[in-house]
Structure to design on (342 residues):
């Protein structure tokens, strides 16, 4: 942990802390929404510790609270979380060695920690950003959910605070440096278009995976340091 | 509504499945030799996924258009980020724009 502290400079630590605070509020709204929908107090808290993926948790609670089958809720949640497979394939190197680190680091893999890691150039900083964001969010998210579950509807409307706009803005700010690369920009534009066009017709999660066709465009594009040994990764 | 046992079980299955997705990437990565080109494409793949997540969460609620306040907030944040504003300015401006528009009755 000490090496993480050393590597994180103040501005990166502040950015991560800001995201943690914002997510704590979203967590509180999650806890409040789940309990006020008539679900038991422990369910949002157990979900947050065991699943630790905001969108899938909201989806799960939404389905179960409206009388849906828990099996359907699990399937919908898994579909939404399938994106973690390509995430892990990309940033797997930040986890480090040792089985305990690997297991804990694996569980801390979420959109924000992946995005913070990707936004860093250098290896040591990538690792520090990933772990600091993952640990910070795990603590803040779970605390927020517990507070929300107990406090009830007091904090259920995070839209009034504009926090629903904060999440995409956070991710956008973190991927912008990567988008300065033309191949990545082409791929992302196509991916976003595919996701948006298919989203109205497909269950949530699937449009995100379909967005990966955008990578093919980047692959077909000219690459100056092309080694051309291997085919495209099939995601 | 579902039984307590059913809900506990469903939560554990979702947690285990999610963990399996998270674990598969790092494990696969160790087993294959990656050329620099593939390595680069993997980076692009993660950026594409995150970009698609930005696009869908900025514009859609479930499967319908979410209204104007949220995308406007994200757009303001995006422009500021593009102009290299500090991260906290980007995030607070995005949230503030969306919240402000809602106070004004724009949704």
């Amino acid at each position: 942990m000490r090496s993480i502290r050393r590597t994180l400079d103040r501005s990166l630590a502040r950015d991560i802390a800001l995201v943690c605070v914002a997510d704590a509020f979203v967590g509180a709204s999650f806890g409040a929404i789940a309990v006020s929908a008539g679900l038991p107090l422990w369910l949002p808290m157990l979900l947050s510790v065991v699943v630790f993926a905001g969108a899938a948790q909201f989806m799960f609670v939404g389905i179960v609270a409206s009388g849906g089958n828990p099996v359907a809720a699990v399937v919908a949640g898994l579909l939404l979380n399938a994106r973690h497979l390509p995430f892990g394939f990309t940033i797997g190197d930040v986890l480090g060695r040792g089985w305990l680190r690997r297991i804990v680091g694996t569980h801390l893999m979420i959109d924000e920690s992946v995005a913070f890691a990707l936004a860093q150039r250098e290896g040591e900083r990538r690792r520090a950003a990933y772990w600091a964001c993952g640990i910070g969010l795990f603590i803040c998210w779970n605390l927020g959910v517990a507070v929300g579950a107990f406090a009830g509807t007091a904090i259920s409307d995070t839209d009034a605070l504009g926090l629903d706009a904060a999440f995409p803005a956070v991710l956008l700010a973190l991927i912008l440096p990567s988008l300065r690369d033309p191949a990545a920009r082409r791929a992302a534009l196509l991916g976003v278009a595919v996701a948006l066009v298919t989203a109205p017709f497909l269950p949530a999660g699937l449009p995100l995976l379909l967005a990966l066709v955008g990578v093919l465009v980047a692959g077909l594009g000219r690459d100056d340091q092309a080694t051309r040994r291997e085919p495209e990764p099939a995601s | 509504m579902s039984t307590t046992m059913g809900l506990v079980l469903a939560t554990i299955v979702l947690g285990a499945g999610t963990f399996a997705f998270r674990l598969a990437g790092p494990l696969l990565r160790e087993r294959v030799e990656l050329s620099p080109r593939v390595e680069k494409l993997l980076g692009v793949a993660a950026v594409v996924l995150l970009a698609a997540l930005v696009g869908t969460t900025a514009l859609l609620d479930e499967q319908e258009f979410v209204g104007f306040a949220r995308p406007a907030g994200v757009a303001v944040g995006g422009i500021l980020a593009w102009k290299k504003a500090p991260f906290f300015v980007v995030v607070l401006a995005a949230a503030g724009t969306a919240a402000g528009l809602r106070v004004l009755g724009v949704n």
Q: What stands out?
A: Chain B touches chain A through 80 residues (CB under 8 Å). Residues 4-31 of chain B form the longest helix (28 residues).
